[in-house]
Design brief:
Aspartate Aminotransferase, domain 1; Ribosomal protein S3 C-terminal domain; CapZ_alpha/beta; single chain; four-stranded antiparallel β-sheet; 3 domains; alpha+beta; five-stranded antiparallel β-sheet; 30% strand
Length: 304
């Protein structure tokens, strides 16, 4: 009952499903299963929960670029739009297999060989495989927990001198709930190869999501877009140039973030504080370290 005596209107099942879906989609990296469990306890209606989960999990998994171990142990498949055959099937061109994904359980339930129509032409595959090899080498150095795939996303049936597009996807996650932090790195690189123009154009999108929740709730969501180009050459030379560009831009963005956060405590946090505390006395930041040492010394002396 509200203060005027009117009864609160019960949410419809459709509204409950929409709200539950929203909460699931907003889950931080690696935490959707925890959110799902809590929602089940709140909803107390399995039909509503299942409807929300079936709508939210496939979208969430693709947005997060979830990496799943294939059921035959042959490798990892990345659940993303560029590798999607249909709602529950995703291709891995490195092993030429299609994986069946249970989105709600976030596991691979089976694999099958990819059909010829699902594979790129021999000409396109030569470039795709060369870039894939170089990306794997880069991932092993830069993202020890990461996984990557290279997809033929446009013009996969092209012959020599034809134009086509490859998409490089990189997904790396670090989940440490015992230490109250989870995070994921995602980057997508559209690589357009123009055989007639002898050029290669790259368009990259990097997304970083992190969640720290010890005695609080701090989240980071940041994105970065960039473009670059190179010369169209043979498969090995093109692959080396493409991955070199990817490494340059990703390293540059990481360096930028590190610089920003190194200045966070000295600049940003100070600006958030009031100019004068309740004592109406300015705080001398230059003496902060000395004051801390004085307190520690006083504590040590008093304990003796």
């Amino acid at each position: 009952m509200d203060p005027l005596g009117a009864e609160e209107e019960e949410l419809s099942d459709e509204q409950k499903i929409a709200l539950a879906k929203w909460f699931l989609l907003k889950s931080p990296p690696g935490e959707i299963q925890y959110v799902a469990k809590d929602l089940q306890g709140v909803l107390l209606n399995d039909n509503i929960y299942q409807a929300a989960a079936q709508a939210a999990f496939p979208v969430y998994n693709k947005e997060q670029m979830l990496s799943v171990e294939m059921s035959d142990g042959s490798g990892q498949v990345i659940v993303c739009e560029d590798g999607e055959i249909d709602a529950n099937h995703f291709i891995d061109l490195r092993t030429a297999q299609v994986a069946t994904i249970d989105h709600i359980e976030q596991v691979c339930t089976g694999v099958r060989p990819a059909a010829d129509s699902e594979l790129p032409s021999a000409y396109v595959e030569e470039y795709r495989a060369a870039i894939d090899t170089e990306v794997v080498r880069y991932i092993e150095e830069a993202f020890p927990r990461g996984h990557c795939s290279v997809f033929a996303t446009n013009g996969k049936d092209s012959d020599e001198n034809g134009g086509f597009e490859l998409t490089v996807v990189i997904s790396s996650a670090k989940f440490s709930p015992k230490n109250f932090c989870n995070g994921r790195w995602r980057s997508i690189w559209k690589v357009q190869l123009h055989g007639d123009l002898q050029t290669v154009d790259l368009q990259g999108n990097i997304k970083i999501s992190a969640h720290y929740f010890e005695e609080g709730n701090v989240q980071l969501d940041t994105a970065y877009d960039c473009k670059d180009s190179s010369i169209f050459q043979g498969p090995a030379e093109t692959a080396s140039a493409v991955v070199g560009i990817i490494q340059h831009h990703e390293s540059e963005y990481l360096a930028y973030l590190e610089d920003c956060y190194s200045k966070l405590s000295d600049n940003t946090f100070k600006e958030l504080r009031r100019k004068l505390p309740v004592t109406r006395t300015l705080f001398f930041w230059g003496n902060a370290h000395q004051m801390s040492m004085n307190r520690e010394l006083a504590r040590e002396i008093s304990s003796k």
